[in-house]
Design goal:
The structure holds two protein chains of two kinds. Chain A is about 40% helix and about 15% strand. Chain A is of the alpha/beta class. Chain A folds into five domains: about 130 residues, Glutaredoxin (3-Layer(aba) Sandwich); about 200 residues, NADH-ubiquinone oxidoreductase 51kDa subunit (Rossmann fold, 3-Layer(aba) Sandwich); about 80 residues, Ubiquitin-like (UB roll) (Roll), CATH 3.10.20.600; about 90 residues, de novo design (two linked rop proteins), CATH 1.20.1440.230; about 55 residues, Alpha-Beta Plaits (2-Layer Sandwich), CATH 3.30.70. The longest helix of chain B is centred in the first third of the chain and has 14 residues. Classes of the chains: A alpha/beta, B alpha/beta.
C-alpha cells in the first residue's frame, strides 16, 4: 500500500509525465485547434496500452505497486517503446480494485495481484491471449467475462462524464486534449457570445448536481445580470455527504473537465476568478487539481488574454478543514473569506451578493464537468436523455451491502431496482434487500416495495428522500433502520454549526429519543414526538442542513413503523444491531471448539476447552462482535 | 475541641484570579456568608471571557453572561476586590491562612477616583488602557521562522486566515496557542476570531497530536459495515477517547465523516494511507508498523 502524497508518487510516474509533456503557451485559437487536431491524428487507435486504475480506492488496494512491476516486465521483454502504461483515474468499480484494462481490446482484469503481472505481460500483452483465471466472474450468472464493456456493471450504465476516466491520465493535459478536451472551450471563445452559451445550457435542462437541483442555466443568467463589476464562480467540491464520492472521482480522474467547465462558465457569466473549494480529506484530488491547473496555465488556457481573445480567467484552490456545513453555499463562501463558516440568511442569494459582496455563481463538481459535454454535443444531445423534468445522466455512488459497489452513471429516470439488481448485482451472501438510503444525511430511506420508481429529482422528493449529491447506500436485513436514523442524526447534530436553535437543540432532542429507543427505553408516544419535532426543525432552520436533517428519521418512521414498534413495545431489534437489545451466544452444535474466538475476545468473556463447545459469559460480554467475525463455522448467534 | 478550631478559623476566603471562574466562586461564597477577597493581577476583573465575542457551545454573547457578574462582584458587600496585585506567599493551614499580597502601584488613588475617564482622554500617550495585558509571545527561533515562512506567503491576500491556519496545523501538527497569538498580532485579527475558526473545523486541533493519526471512517457505508466497532476497538486498545492522543504521543484517534472510499468499507486512514476492508481482528496488525 502506497502513500498518496505527491512527494511519494513513483519516480517513474513523475519522469514519465515530464517526458510526454509539450509545454508551450498557445496564444491563439487556430494554434490550439491545430495542436488538438494533430494530437488526435497522432493517436494510434491500435496502440497497445495497459491502463491501471489510480483512483484512491485502487491505490489503497495497491495499484501503484503494480505500475512499477509492469514497467519492469516491459523492460525485461524489451517492449517498453511499443506498449504504453497509463495511470488513469477511477474506473468506478471500486469493489474489485485494483483494476487493469488492456487496450485496445479492452480486456478486463479485476483484483490484480503483484504475482499476476508477469503473466499478464507475457500472455495478454505480448501474445494477445486471455488469462481465464484472472477474469471477472459475474456473481449473478457465474459467467466469466472478458471485455470491460461486457461487464454488467458497466454495460447498463451511460457513462458521459465518467467515460473518459479510464482512458486518460489525469496528470497529463495532452491526454485530455487528445480525447477532445478544451475543444468546447475553444469553440465558445471562437464563435459564441456569453448569452448564447447560457441559452444553450438552459435548453439542455441541466440541473445542479449537488443536491438542490436548481436549473444551472438560469442560475448563470441571474448571476450574469446581477449588479456588480467583479463576478466570481465557485466549484463546490466539499463533498461532505457520507457515502458519496463521485466528486472525488471526477477530480482525481478527470480534473481538466471541471476546469474546462469553469472556464466556459466564467466566460458566460463574465467572471474573472474561479475558486475550487475542496475538502481536505481528499489529498490526492487536491494534488491532481493543482497539477492540472498548473498545466492549463502553462498552455495558456488559464490566465490573462486566453488564446488571444482578451478573456482572462484565473482559478484558485481553497482547502476545507473538515466541516460538513461548508458544503452549504453561504457557509462555503464564509469559509473562503476566512470567516466563521456559519450559513447566512437568503436572500440575498449568492448570485446577487456572494463572495466579498460580489455576485457569485456556485456549482457542484459534477455540474461543471457536464458543461463541456453539452457545449460540444449540443443541448439536444443532453436533453434527449432522461425524464421530462430531469435531463441527462447522474452519477451515483452505489455502496453498502451490495455485490458490485462503485460509481455508476445512469440516465435519469432509470428505476431503482435496475440500478440495484441490474448494475449492482444484488445483495451479497443471499441476504434479502431491505432499503436504500439516498442523498446522504439529508435524504431518506426508500423501502424495497418502492423499487420500481424512476430515479429523478421529483419522484425521489415525492417518496420522502432527495437526489442529493447521489449517495446510494444499500441496506440488507442485517441493517437496523433506527440505528441508521440515529447514525445520521448524530452526524448532523455533530456538524450543526449551532446558529439556529431548532437545528442545534432539535437534533439533540431527536437523537436523545432515538438513543432511548435503541436502548430499549422507548415510550409509545416517542414516535409521534419524533415526527412533531422533525417537522418543527424542518420549518424553523435557516439552511439546508437543518431543513433536511429530519428526513432520515421521518422517512424511516413512514416506511418502517413496525420496526420502531418492535424496539419500543417488544424491546427487540429485528436486525440484531442495537447492542442493548441483543445477546451473543454460541451454538453448541455448530461449535467445534477451535478456540479462535476465545483467543480474540478482549474481555475474556468466552470460556471452553479445545475441541469442546465454547460458551459466552453474557455478564462480561461487551457485544463487540469480534467472535462472530472470526468464527468460521457461523456458530456465534446474535439474538 | 470543635469550638476551639471554630474559633481559630477566620471565616474569610481569598480567591486568586478574577476570571469568570474566580468571579463566580466569589459570588457563591459571598452569598453563603463568607468574606471574600478577590485577587486579580491585572487592573480589572473579567479575564479572558470579557474579551470574547461568543462562547462555546451555545454561541451566547460572552458579555451578556459575564457583565451582570462583574457588576455583582463589584457591588457585593462581602467581596473586596484587590486588583493590580500579586500573590507573594501563603502560610498557615486550612481555616487560618496568612497571605502576603503585593499591590502594584496605580499612581491613582483608587479611594478618590470616580472612574470618570477624563484622565484617559487627556493623556497624550494612547493605547495604554486598551492594551491592559502586554501581548507577549514566546516563540523559539525555529518556530518563529516556520511561522514567518507561512505568514510571508499569505500576508495581504484576501481571505488568508484559513490557509494560514491550515499551514500551521500541517507544520506543527496542531495549533499552538503562542503561534495563534503571534498570528493574531501580525494579521491584526482578534484572537477570539481566530479561536472561533480554529475550534469550528474538525481538522484543527488545539492540543498537541500524536505522531500518527488514525482516522476511522464513519461514513454511512463504513458504519453499515461495522466501522463503529473498529473505532471502539482502537479506543479500547489505547484507552483514549475519540479525538484524544495516547500518552506516549504515538496515536491520535479521530473519526471522520467520510473518506470517500466507500467501495472498500469499512476503511481507516493512518496518516495519509488508506486501508480498506479492515476487520476488528486485523486492525491492530495494521497499526503495528506505526511506531
Amino acid at each position: 500500500m502506497k502513500n498518496i502524497n505527491e512527494r511519494d508518487l513513483p519516480v517513474q510516474w513523475m519522469n514519465w509525465i515530464s517526458k510526454r509533456e509539450i509545454m508551450t503557451r498557445i496564444t491563439d485559437i487556430d494554434a490550439f485547434e491545430k495542436m488538438s487536431g494533430k494530437l488526435q491524428k497522432q493517436k494510434d487507435p491500435n496502440r497497445k496500452s495497459v491502463c491501471v486504475c489510480g483512483g484512491s480506492a485502487c491505490i489503497a488496494t495497491g495499484s501503484l505497486g503494480l505500475i512499477d512491476l509492469f514497467e519492469k516486465e516491459f523492460k525485461a521483454h524489451g517492449i517498453e517503446d511499443e506498449v504504453d502504461i497509463l495511470v488513469t483515474g477511477c474506473h468506478g468499480f471500486c469493489e474489485k480494485g485494483p483494476l487493469v484494462v488492456i487496450r485496445p481490446e479492452g480486456i478486463f482484469y479485476p483484483m490484480v495481484k503483484k504475482e499476476d503481472v508477469p503473466g499478464i505481460v507475457k500472455e495478454t500483452v505480448i501474445d494477445g491471449k486471455v488469462i481465464e483465471s484472472l477474469l471477472y466472474v459475474d456473481p449473478m450468472t457465474n459467467e466469466k467475462i472478458v471485455y470491460e464493456h461486457d461487464v454488467p456493471f458497466y454495460k447498463k450504465q451511460k457513462r458521459l462524464v465518467l467515460g473518459q476516466n479510464g482512458l486518460i491520465d489525469p496528470m497529463v493535459i495532452t491526454d485530455y486534449i487528445t480525447v477532445g478536451g478544451y475543444k468546447a472551450f475553444a469553440s465558445v471563445l471562437a464563435s459564441m457570445t456569453s448569452d448564447e452559451v447560457i441559452d444553450l445550457i438552459i435548453d439542455s435542462g441541466l440541473k445542479g448536481r449537488g443536491g438542490g437541483g436548481f436549473p444551472t442555466g438560469i442560475k448563470w443568467k441571474l448571476c450574469k445580470n446581477a449588479k456588480g463589476k467583479i463576478k466570481n464562480i465557485v466549484c463546490n467540491a466539499d463533498e461532505g455527504d457520507p457515502g458519496a464520492y463521485m466528486d472525488r472521482s471526477i477530480l482525481e480522474g478527470n480534473p481538466h473537465s471541471v476546469i474546462e467547465g469553469m472556464l466556459i462558465g466564467g466566460f458566460a457569466i463574465t467572471a474573472s476568478v474561479g475558486y475550487i473549494y475542496v475538502r481536505t480529506e481528499y489529498p490526492l484530488a487536491i494534488e491532481r487539481l493543482k497539477k492540472a491547473i498548473e498545466q492549463a496555465k502553462e498552455f495558456g488556457l488559464i490566465g490573462d488574454d486566453i488564446l488571444g481573445t482578451g478573456f482572462s480567467f484565473d482559478i484558485e484552490i481553497r482547502e476545507g478543514s473538515g466541516a460538513f456545513v461548508c458544503g452549504e453555499e453561504t457557509s462555503l463562501m464564509h469559509s473562503i473569506e476566512g470567516l466563521s463558516p456559519e450559513p447566512s440568511q437568503r436572500p440575498p442569494f449568492p448570485v446577487e451578493s456572494g463572495l466579498w459582496g460580489n455576485p457569485t455563481n456556485i456549482n457542484n463538481v459534477e455540474t461543471w464537468a457536464v458543461v463541456p459535454l453539452i457545449i460540444s454535443n449540443g443541448s439536444k444531445y443532453f436533453s434527449d436523455i432522461g425524464t421530462e423534468n430531469s435531463k441527462g445522466t447522474k452519477i451515483f455512488s452505489l455502496v453498502g451491502k451490495i455485490n458490485n459497489s462503485g460509481l455508476v452513471e445512469v440516465p435519469m429516470g432509470i428505476s431503482l431496482g435496475e440500478i440495484i439488481n441490474g448494475i449492482g448485482g444484488g445483495i451479497p451472501d443471499g441476504k434479502s434487500f431491505k432499503a436504500v438510503q439516498t442523498g446522504g444525511p439529508s435524504g431518506g430511506c426508500i423501502p424495497a416495495s418502492l423499487m420500481d420508481i424512476p430515479v429523478d429529482y421529483e419522484k425521489l422528493a415525492e417518496v420522502g428522500s432527495i437526489m442529493g449529491s447521489g449517495g446510494m447506500v444499500v441496506m440488507d436485513e442485517d441493517t437496523c433502520v433506527i440505528d441508521i436514523a440515529k447514525y445520521f442524526l448524530s452526524f448532523t447534530n455533530d456538524e450543526s454549526c449551532g446558529k439556529c436553535a431548532s437545528c442545534r437543540d432539535g437534533s439533540k432532542a431527536m437523537l436523545d429519543i432515538l438513543t432511548r429507543i435503541s436502548e430499549g427505553h422507548g415510550k409509545p408516544k416517542d414516535i409521534d414526538l419524533l415526527v412533531e419535532l422533525g417537522e418543527a426543525v424542518k420549518d424553523a432552520s435557516q439552511c439546508g442542513l437543518g431543513q433536511t436533517l429530519s428526513n432520515p428519521v421521518l422517512s424511516t418512521i413512514k416506511y418502517f413503523r413496525d420496526e420502531y414498534n418492535a424496539h419500543i413495545v417488544d424491546k427487540k431489534c429485528p436486525a440484531h444491531v442495537c447492542k442493548a437489545l441483543v445477546t451473543y451466544s454460541i451454538n453448541s452444535e455448530e461449535c467445534i471448539g477451535c478456540g479462535v474466538c476465545l483467543k480474540n475476545c478482549s474481555v475474556g468473556a468466552i470460556t471452553g476447552s479445545l475441541k469442546a463447545a465454547h460458551s459466552i459469559d453474557t455478564g462480561k460480554c461487551t457485544k463487540c462482535g469480534v467472535c462472530r467475525e472470526v468464527c468460521k463455522f457461523n456458530a456465534v448467534i446474535v439474538e | 475541641m470543635i469550638k476551639k478550631t471554630e474559633k481559630t478559623k477566620s471565616g474569610s476566603v481569598l480567591v486568586v484570579g478574577g476570571g469568570i471562574a474566580g468571579i463566580q466562586s466569589s459570588l457563591d461564597l459571598a452569598e453563603s456568608g463568607f468574606k471574600v477577597y478577590l485577587l486579580e493581577e491585572t487592573p480589572a476583573i473579567g479575564g479572558t471571557m470579557a474579551q470574547l465575542d461568543k462562547t462555546f457551545p451555545t454561541n451566547d454573547c460572552a458579555m451578556c453572561v459575564i457583565s451582570p457578574k462583574l457588576v455583582g462582584a463589584g457591588r457585593h458587600l462581602n467581596i473586596d476586590l484587590i486588583t493590580n496585585s500579586e500573590l507573594v506567599s501563603v502560610s498557615g493551614e486550612a481555616g487560618n491562612f496568612m497571605v502576603k499580597v503585593k499591590k502594584n502601584p496605580r499612581y491613582i488613588d483608587s479611594e478618590k477616583c470616580t472612574g470618570c475617564g477624563a484622565c484617559v482622554e487627556a493623556c497624550p500617550v494612547s493605547n495604554i488602557i486598551q492594551c491592559v495585558e502586554e501581548p507577549y509571545v514566546r516563540l523559539s527561533d525555529g518556530d518563529l521562522q516556520k511561522v514567518r515562512f507561512i505568514l510571508d506567503k499569505y500576508i495581504g491576500v484576501k481571505g488568508n486566515l484559513m490557509p494560514i491556519l491550515q499551514q500551521i496545523n500541517k507544520t506543527f501538527n496542531y495549533l499552538p496557542s503562542d503561534v495563534l497569538r503571534y498570528v493574531s498580532i501580525e494579521l491584526g485579527v482578534g484572537l477570539s476570531e481566530i479561536y472561533n475558526i480554529a475550534s469550528f473545523y474538525n481538522s484543527f486541533s488545539l492540543t498537541p497530536r500524536g505522531r500518527h493519526t488514525i482516522k476511522v471512517c464513519m461514513g454511512t457505508t463504513c458504519y453499515v459495515k461495522g466501522g463503529e466497532r473498529l473505532l471502539d476497538k482502537v479506543k479500547d486498545e489505547f484507552g483514549i477517547d475519540n479525538g484524544e492522543t495516547s500518552e506516549d504521543m504515538r496515536f491520535t484517534i479521530e473519526s471522520v465523516a467520510c473518506l470517500g472510499c466507500c467501495g472498500l468499507a469499512p476503511a481507516i486512514m493512518v496518516n495519509d494511507e488508506v486501508y480498506g476492508k479492515v476487520k476488528v481482528s486485523n486492525i491492530m496488525k495494521i497499526l503495528e508498523k506505526y511506531k
